[in-house]
């Protein structure tokens, strides 16, 4: 069960093999809208452990965190610690680089990603 490829990216829109989203959660076998309200995520302090939990539950062995086009979305230290403690390889990068990295990993690995398509 592969991770869906990202097929297009523009400000406020991420296109994947599984549909189009503003912000997306991608994981082995699927993708869905990443609704920040589910976990109370904000730009600061940023991506929380609860945001990556679904990726881990769905078997991601490498996780790419897209921090926005300008890198304004933070990543909580607890999130990075959780991923590393679980033995998950993690990358936190600006969105364009995150998309390139994820698309490079997805065909070969059980990849997961959180991609923020604005700021």
TrEMBL record:
It comes from the Bacteria. GO terms for cellular component: cytoplasm. Pfam families: DUF498. Transmembrane segments: none annotated. Keywords: Cytoplasm. It is found in: Cytoplasm. Its main location: cytoplasm. This is Uncharacterized protein. It comes from Rubrobacter xylanophilus (strain DSM 9941 / JCM 11954 / NBRC 16129 / PRD-1).
């Amino acid at each position: 069960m592969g991770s869906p490829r990202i097929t297009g990216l523009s400000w406020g829109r991420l296109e994947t093999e599984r549909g189009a989203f503003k912000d997306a959660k991608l994981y082995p076998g699927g993708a869905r809208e990443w609704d920040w309200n589910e976990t109370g995520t904000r730009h600061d302090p940023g991506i929380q452990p609860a945001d990556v939990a679904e990726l881990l539950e769905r078997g991601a062995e490498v996780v790419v965190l897209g921090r926005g086009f300008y890198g304004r979305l933070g990543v909580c230290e607890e999130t990075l610690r959780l991923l590393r403690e679980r033995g998950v390889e993690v990358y936190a990068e600006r969105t364009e680089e995150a998309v390139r990295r994820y698309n490079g990993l997805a065909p070969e690995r059980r990849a997961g990603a959180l991609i923020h398509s604005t700021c």
